[in-house]
Design the sequence.
């Protein structure tokens, strides 16, 4: 089984912070920048694709704050518990969403499996909906003179 979760040690958080800062500085440069990774066991550095560098920078940023990281392939399926963690809600709430048809899923025996891309799409939709509602509330408050 592939381990896809990493929780940083305190000493690693400081290293992650320095590395994230270095990647941020280079990423904001005007000219394209090539990234290479190497260690003492290999003679030639390995070139990293730009998309991987962006993800790596985000991982390092989270780790620098002491947060654990979980990586899932885009085509992966997640359990109801993993979905609850991603949405930051309870498992029973996720099950209600599934049964209401809000998020597609399939049954594997007695267990529900949710396509990760569908879960991410749902999360993006609810975030967009919340932002639209907040924008509408601010506009109404401004119209009523309650907000400057």
Sequence:
């Amino acid at each position: 089984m592939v381990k896809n979760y990493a929780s940083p040690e305190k000493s690693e958080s400081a290293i992650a912070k320095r590395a994230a800062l270095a990647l941020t500085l280079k990423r904001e440069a005007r000219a394209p920048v090539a990234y290479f990774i190497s260690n003492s066991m290999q003679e030639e550095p390995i070139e990293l694709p730009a998309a991987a560098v962006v993800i790596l920078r985000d991982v390092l940023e989270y780790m620098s704050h002491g947060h654990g990281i979980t990586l899932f392939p885009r085509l992966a399926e997640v359990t109801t518990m993993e979905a609850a963690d991603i949405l930051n809600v309870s498992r029973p709430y996720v099950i209600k969403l599934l049964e209401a048809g809000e998020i597609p899923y399939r049954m594997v025996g007695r267990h529900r499996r949710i396509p990760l891309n569908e879960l991410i799409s749902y999360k993006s939709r609810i975030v967009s909906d919340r932002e639209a509602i907040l924008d509408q509330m601010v506009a109404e408050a401004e119209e009523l003179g309650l907000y400057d």
About this structure: The mean pLDDT is 83. Helices lie at 10-27, 50-64, 80-87, 91-99, 116-143. The longest helix spans residues 116-143.
